């Protein structure tokens, strides 16, 4: 028997669910859902920034403000810049689903090659730089060949490379240290740009450069927001957007003020900033960058989509060799020489920076900026504990626990996301 609804019952149904009453609730629900989705999607990255600020504040209290002094902030930039350079390449390797255990040995070998040419043979300082870069590219091509075209897992290839290149470093140096480099070479990691000294002793040039950088960041973020709105993607409210820009500007300019009151703008910081900008564009706005994420996210789908997986993997390791060579130049410049033991444990610091900065263990997730924040977290913790006089053994325990918690948080997020589907 079929039940019919008479005309008299229709007004009751309409009055119970009147569009006039439902529309505000639907709009409110949609806005809340978008905000919740936006927060959930950015929880990992936002959490890293919050953790970084909290760690900086914690060590500022524990060291009675010494960790935030102008001189110490400058030293942090100089001492950990090469780890951040390595982290740029390492996060790309990890996003593609690989790992590189050889970068510390490559740092040592490229620095040794430069030292042999410049210190021992008396070649111009720039010849050592070119030779180190060429060595890094050759090493990257060597490892990329075995990974991409022979099919040996990157873990095995780079583990062999760690032993191979450390042995070559000992052979090149004859198991002795070489020093010193010419002053021009030393300025790469220890030089400063401080051409405009203000009346109170601060460097106005540093403040000017950072001010320009803040304006550029604000313009870039505004253009990104407009583009997302054009495609009807969820974004934060405009007051929240402005507050975020102002917060970033305040932190950056406070950092610039500390540098300006020390020795000015470190040259190595300029090198690092250029690398961050270049690789930020490469990973987000180029075909190669999208292919790297596609390979790490779903190898089978990437292959079926026409991605040349072997070529991408090959060039990833060539790029890692190049960045390891740059880090080797910076480290040898900083230490004013080449030592057989240079670069030990650098690979672990770079891997830790990538994972703490949000890279996923399974690949497909990670950013250059996140790796930089992860590296800075490690740098601030190490520097703060050193100021406090904490033993190296305890420092290793703390850094190991931080890395473990970062990866555990990543696994937890994945399980939660899988359970919600």
UniProtKB/TrEMBL annotation:
Specify the protein's topology with respect to the membrane: Multi-pass membrane protein
Q: Which GO terms describe its cellular component?
A: plasma membrane
Where do the coiled-coil regions begin and end?
Answer: none
**InterPro entries linked:** ABC_transp_permease
Annotated function:
Part of the binding-protein-dependent transport system for D-xylose. Probably responsible for the translocation of the substrate across the membrane.
Tell where it localizes. Answer: Cell membrane
A single Pfam family it belongs to is BPD_transp_2
Give me the ranges of the annotated region Disordered.
Answer: 1-20
Which keywords does UniProt give here?
A: Cell inner membrane, Cell membrane, Membrane, Sugar transport, Transmembrane, Transmembrane helix, Transport
A GO MF label: transmembrane transporter activity
Checking CDD domains in the record gives: TM_PBP1_transp_AraH_like (cd06579)
Highest taxon listed in the record's lineage: Bacteria
Q: What is its main location?
A: membrane
Matching entries from PANTHER family are given as: ABC TRANSPORTER PERMEASE PROTEIN YPHD-RELATED-RELATED (PTHR32196), XYLOSE TRANSPORT SYSTEM PERMEASE PROTEIN XYLH (PTHR32196:SF32)
Protein name, entry field = Xylose transport system permease protein XylH
Q: Which organism is it from?
A: Blastococcus saxobsidens
Segments crossing the lipid bilayer: 46-65, 77-96, 101-119, 125-142, 147-165, 201-219, 240-259, 265-282, 313-331, 352-381
Ranges of biased composition (kind: Polar residues): 1-18
